[in-house]
């Protein structure tokens, strides 16, 4: 039986909720504040950093008409990565994204 977290959800379910599009942003913030399980907190931080990175990239690309054509591609890629991370989190494995994994480690030690 999986160890229950402070939210009474199993860690893999809580980690998965962090990556669900739209709902995941709120869930990640809630789990970051309430959750004591380090894996869930780590996934919440990575989810927030991924969403923030996608948002910033959308803003930068959207500043010019030519680069704005790349925004849908970035959003589809972000959605695919998010769904893969959600499935992996549900399976109980942690996936470190190449650019965000190090930042996630640093932030999780400070939070």
Features:
111 residues; mainly alpha; 71% helix; elongated; membrane; transmembrane helix; MamF_MmsF
Task: Please provide a written account of the structure.
This protein is an all-alpha fold. The protein has one domain. The protein is built from six helices and no strands. It has helices at residues 11-19, 23-34, 38-61, 65-68, 71-90, 101-110. Helix 3 runs antiparallel to helix 5. The model has no long low-confidence stretch (mean pLDDT 90). InterPro entries: MamF_MmsF. This is Chloroplast import component protein (Tic20). It comes from Candidatus Woesebacteria bacterium GW2011_GWA1_41_13b. It is found in: Membrane.
Write the layout of secondary structure elements.
Elements (H helix, E strand, L loop, with lengths): L10 H9 L3 H12 L3 H24 L3 H4 L2 H20 L10 H10 L1
How many beta-strand segments?
A: 0
The helix tally amounts to 6
Cα-to-Cα separation, first versus last residue:
28 Å
Low-confidence blocks of residues: none
Query: Outline, from the CA principal axes?
Result: elongated
Proportion in helices: over 70%
Number of domains: 1
Q: Would you list the SSEs in sequence order as H and E?
A: HHHHHH
Strand content: under 5%
Biggest β-sheet strands, sense, barrel: none
- Structural class comes to mainly alpha
Tell me the Rg in angstroms: 15 Å
Averaged pLDDT, please?
90
User: What is the oligomeric state here?
Assistant: single chain
GO cellular component, one term: membrane
Membrane topology: Multi-pass membrane protein
Keywords: Membrane, Transmembrane, Transmembrane helix
Protein name: Chloroplast import component protein (Tic20)
């Amino acid at each position: 039986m999986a160890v229950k977290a402070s939210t009474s959800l199993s860690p893999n379910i809580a980690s998965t909720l962090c990556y669900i599009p739209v709902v995941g942003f709120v869930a990640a913030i809630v789990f970051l504040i309430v959750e004591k399980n380090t894996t869930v907190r780590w996934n919440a931080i990575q989810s927030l950093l991924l969403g923030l990175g996608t948002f910033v990239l959308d803003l930068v690309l959207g500043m010019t008409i030519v680069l704005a054509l790349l925004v849908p591609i970035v959003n589809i890629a972000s959605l695919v990565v998010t769904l893969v991370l959600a499935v992996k989190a549900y399976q109980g494995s942690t996936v470190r994204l190449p650019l965000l994994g190090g930042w996630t480690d640093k932030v999780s030690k400070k939070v």
